[in-house]
Fold this sequence. Notes:
Blueprint (H helix, E strand, L loop, with lengths): L1 H9 L7 H14 L13 H19 L6 H10 L6 H13 L5 H50 L4 H50 L2
Helix pairs in contact: 1-6, 3-7, 4-5, 6-7
Amino acid sequence: MASLGKKILSAFIEVEDKTKNEEDAGTQSVQASSPPPRSTETRAPADADNKFSDYFNKLFADANLPGPDYYEFAKMIEAMHVIKDESARFSAAYAGLQAQGLDKQKLLSSAQEYVKILDADAAAFHSTVDQALLDKVQNKKKEMDQVQQQIQKLSQEIVNLQQQIGVLTQEIAENEEKIENNSSGYDAAMTSSRNKLLQDIEKIKQHIL
């Protein structure tokens, strides 16, 4: 599950390879004589929305089974957006897929399966977020505390160690901000997608007899 979660998180933020980090740790203190420049790259809110929307679209597409089910139904409803009446739109989409073998029971059961897919994906994502926070924030805070102790004991290395603290502090702020922002964006997009599924389930029950 950890590798799956890492793959999910990697779709949104950079997750460094732990083994590579350990190999590079011995050289970082020498190379980090000054903090690296802070990234100036910014993403517009629309770009972030598209990123999560594209991710969930791919998640559903990858999980889609052969034959018509809720996935095709939802796509057809989306394609029929010009039909303003919701009941007519749902009925028309269902009628088009009913000829291909879709029935109401399969439509509802497949929609529930996509809810389960979202829940499982969210669980894997947040498990990896917790590990990322441990690796990228909490462990670095501990490392910063160790560096501060070294400053007290090794006065001749005060300048270099203070610069290392600056690097670690910057990494903590950047990693924590990046993880929290992407976690919030993921939660919002997941909740929206899940609510849409649950609403569609209720509308299917209401509109399709």
